Amino acid sequence: MKKVVKKTTIGGQALFEGILMKGPHESSIVVRKPDGSLESKIVNNKSISDKYSIFKLPFFRGMGALYDALKNGTGAINYSTSFYEESEEEKQKEANKSKFRRKLEDALVSVAGILMVLGFLFAFLVLPSMISNLFRNQISSPLVLNLIEGLIRIIFFFIYIFVISNIEDIKRVFMYHGAEHKTIATYEFGEELTVENARKNSMLHPRCGTSFMFNMVIISSIVLAFFGWPNPIVRAVTRILILPILVGITYEANRWMGRSDSKMAKILSKPGMFIQYIGTVKEPTDDMLEVAIESLKLVIPENAKDDIW
After folding, report:
1. 3-class SS at 140?
2. Of 276, 223, 271, 268, which Cα lies nearest the Cα of 246?
3. How far apart are CA 266 and CA 247, in angstroms?
4. Please, how many CA atoms are within 13 Å of residue 130, restricted to the half-sphere of its CB?
5. Is residue 195 within 8 Å of residue 290, measured between CB atoms?
């Protein structure tokens, strides 16, 4: 007998030895501390759309959702790593540093973060265009050149997923990612939130950030095909400026695929599910499922209708 699925707006993010769950009213962060105990934190949901109503509108809400996810996710990651990152000796060394040195190190970390973002944009938006341009003397069709660029971007994405999925600490994060998916599936199937029930459910989920990222790579290949093949500088600027548009389109597409039970929606969700399977989601341990279950319980609304997608 086919299970009846309640499609919830509750979503999560895997952290370092923990999970962030975003509910309709508030978010929870649950971390497994080094001594094995669980540390829980409740955070009120603050969205950019509460300040700027334009981000509640279709298309623009995707940009707002991405901003919120990056901002809140970064804070949650910093919180989860705070239980592990420093020994007492390291804390003492930090306390002995001069105020100027601490500010200098903080500034360097910020610069490194900006450089990482710029490097990511270059690798996925600009570099594929530069490589595709090598074929311009052999291929005159802008459409074909754009399709080659899109294929290179997809290959780069696969390489990126393969590399990070083989880093030991990242593997554990991906296992928590699997725990998050299994727990949400258990909740959506209306089953009791236990480790036993969660374990038997799929670690893959159609409404996943990985699917969003991969779908954006694919959609970028389609959208950019309409921009012709101008000179390299114009192409580079175009690919960076178009990013918010791609985010908006991809968000609406993912939102439709997540809500629809049509065959078309299921077919279109397959590529993102495949990326989850080969890279970003791993089978969790029971103690990871415990973290996910505790995190989800903290954000389930009293009114069952509040979190219906």
Report:
1. coil
2. 223
3. 21
4. 9
5. yes
241's CB contacts (< 8 A; 6+ apart) are none
CA-CA distance, 16 to 11, in Å (whole number)?
A: 17
Angle CA 162–159–127, to nearest 5: 155
Distance of CA 183 to the CA centre of its chain: 17
How far apart are the two ends of the chain, measured CA to CA in Å? 23
pLDDT, tens only, 89-121: 555 555 555 666 666 655 665 565 566 667 777
CB 220 within 8 A of CB 289: no
CB 86 within 8 A of CB 98: no
Distance between CA atoms of 94 and 96, rounded to whole angstroms? 5
The residues pairing with 190 across neighbouring beta strands, listed in sequence order, are: none
- Distances 221 to 29, 242, 296 between C-alpha atoms, Å: 36, 12, 36
80 token code pair: 């989860």
Under 8 Å between Cβ of 28 and 42? yes
Fill in the amino acid letter for 208: C
Q: How many helices (H) and strands (E) does the chain have?
A: 13, 4
C-alpha–C-alpha distance, residues 287 and 168, integer Å: 18
| Residues sharing a CB contact under 8 Å with residue 44, sequence separation 6 or more, in sequence order | 25, 26, 27
Q: What is the pTM of this model?
A: 0.83
Q: Say if residue 180 is exposed, middle or buried (CB neighbours under 10 Å; 0-12, 13-18, 19+).
A: buried
- Tell which residue, 39, 23, 7, has the closest CA to residue 291: 39
Largest Cα–Cα separation, the chain: 66
Please count the CA atoms within 13 angstroms of the CA of 308 that sit on its side-chain side: 7
pLDDT of 255-265, one tens digit each? 888 788 888 88
